[in-house]
Amino acid sequence: MASMVTGGDTAALDSLLEKVYRDTGYDFREYKRGTVTRRLERRLRATGAKTYLDYIEFLDAHPEEYHKLADDLIIKVSGFFRSPYTFRQVARLVLPELASFKRSGGERRLKFWSTACARGEESYSIAILLAEFLGNRRQDFDISIYATDISRQALQEAQAGVYPPRDVEGLTSTVLENYFTRYDKGYGVNSNIRQMVSLSYFDLTSTIRQPFVNLDCIFCCNILIYLQSQLQERVLSMLYDSLATPGYLILGEVETPTNSLREKLECLDTKARIYKKNVRLT
Ligand SMILES: C[S@@+](CC[C@H](N)C(=O)[O-])C[C@H]1O[C@@H](n2cnc3c(N)ncnc32)[C@H](O)[C@@H]1O
Q1: Is 0.70 surpassed by the pTM of this model?
Q2: How far is the CA of 145 from the centre of ligand 1 (A)?
């Protein structure tokens, strides 16, 4: 019965999240409390702890529990072309404008960032979208898709790039034939797609400077919803600073942009939440 485990008060929860941050580097202190407490309840129940203070003691005695805790707190649900509408609108509203801007300036470099790439589905979807859009003009561009996440396990799976059949069942047979290879274990992303994607660890809550600059397009989908509004502001401000001019920010159908972002960026699509940075504001 969920109500049996109450976890304890806010101060004890603060201490627990502080401890997790200190001992593991995972910073859930400014994640939305509702999601965090729901997920923590599961760990409390699994470990027999009645309160957050009991659970703190359990962590001290069983450090291996940190992995299970992080695994429960980090929500990794994703998918190829997870919001098909968003990807369609990126192909319609962003890519033609971006490609023609680059061509007119004689530039070859195209830089994308998938900020919470999970097991790589989003970043490989971006690469496939670009391959489809550019066709045989792909060689005209030097494409980098930086793909980062906080989950090292997810990043390892993204690096392997092989997905069970159920993960690719929404893809068309043409996409599967052109960009994947069938193995015993599942479907592997082909090297011509993988070579566009560079995977690395980056924590969006980090207060260090942005890891990439002059980006043409940033995807930040299905992650801000887990963060409290102040942290959302900080992340979005960092993403804004990372964008080139023009530059495009894709939040997808689920996120809600903050007011300050709405003031700074032009909205190209309210449903897919596609924004454009037009002029450099100081
Ligand atoms: C629900 S998934 C969304 C994945 C993908 N962007 C999508 O839209 O399908 C959330 C991802 O955010 C990652 N994540 C959570 N907190 C993070 C943080 N502070 N920095 C970077 N990634 C984070 C998780 O590991 C997970 O892979």
Answers
A1: yes
A2: 16
